[in-house]
């Protein structure tokens, strides 16, 4: 079988970060950057189109949280491995990304050699946790009470987060690649499970309980 470079895609809303990552990989024949995107929805669509071996995903993206992006990628392109790019102070969100299917995460100040080594490890199916923040995530994984106490499925929680951003059912459907009827069903079930009379009350309940962080 002929040798092929590792095909990498990047989802990050900062152009300077995307350019920096591409620069690190540009002169190495072991890697080929096959796509990039600046937000979650276009990123998911890009990954679905180019089917990379590994996609680097910023933990915080405009219009869609990183864990929702991970979940959609895992559903649409399960063979693609996900590497989360994070900064300090985002342990909760990184933890949710790991639960949503990310194989690892690194911090944004990663050096060139570490990035390449990490991408190869992720492509082989290994899990990679940056040691500077791994202990927090590992501890959360040992005690999942905060997550399991939420009476919503991952999809329902994704819908609730977009409701909190003021999106309509149609806009949520477009964002999550679902039908409008499916989103309507999710919204109704969210209201029922939270005992909320309307969308605003559901958002208020979720905010009070810290589910939208």
UniProtKB/TrEMBL annotation:
Positions in coiled-coil regions: none
Pfam families with a match to the protein in the record: GerE, Response_reg
Example of a GO biological process term: phosphorelay signal transduction system
SMART domains attached to this UniProt entry: HTH_LUXR, REC
Keyword DNA repair: no
Domain Response regulatory: 7-123
PROSITE patterns, alphabetized: HTH_LUXR_2 (PS50043), RESPONSE_REGULATORY (PS50110)
Gene Ontology MF: a single term: DNA binding
UniProt modified residues of type 4-aspartylphosphate: 58
Domain of life of the source: Bacteria
The HTH luxR-type domain, residue ranges: 145-210
Keywords associated with the record: DNA-binding, Phosphoprotein, Plasmid, Transcription, Transcription regulation
Protein name as catalogued: Two-component response regulator
Species the sequence originates in: Thermomicrobium roseum (strain ATCC 27502 / DSM 5159 / P-2)
Classification lineage: Bacteria, Pseudomonadati, Thermomicrobiota, Thermomicrobia, Thermomicrobiales
């Amino acid at each position: 079988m002929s040798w092929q470079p590792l095909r990498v895609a990047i989802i990050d809303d900062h152009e300077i970060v995307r350019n920096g990552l591409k620069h690190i990989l540009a002169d190495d024949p072991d890697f080929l950057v096959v796509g990039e995107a600046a937000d979650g929805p276009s990123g998911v669509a890009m990954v679905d189109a180019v089917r990379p071996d590994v996609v680097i995903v910023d933990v915080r993206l405009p219009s869609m949280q990183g864990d929702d992006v991970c979940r959609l990628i895992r559903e649409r392109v399960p063979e693609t491995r996900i590497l989360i790019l994070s900064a300090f102070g985002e342990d909760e969100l990184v933890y949710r990304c790991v639960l949503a299917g990310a194989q690892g995460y690194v911090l944004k100040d990663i050096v060139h050699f570490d990035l390449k080594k990490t991408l190869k490890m992720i492509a082989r199916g290994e899990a990679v946790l940056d040691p500077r923040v791994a202990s927090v995530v590992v501890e959360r994984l040992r005690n999942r009470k905060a997550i399991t106490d939420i009476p919503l499925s991952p999809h329902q929680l994704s819908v609730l987060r977009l409701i909190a951003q003021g999106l309509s059912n149609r806009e949520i459907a477009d964002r999550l690649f679902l039908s409008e009827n499916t989103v309507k069903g999710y919204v109704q079930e969210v209201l029922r499970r939270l005992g909320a009379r309307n969308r605003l009350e559901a958002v208020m309940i979720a905010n009070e309980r810290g589910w939208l962080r």
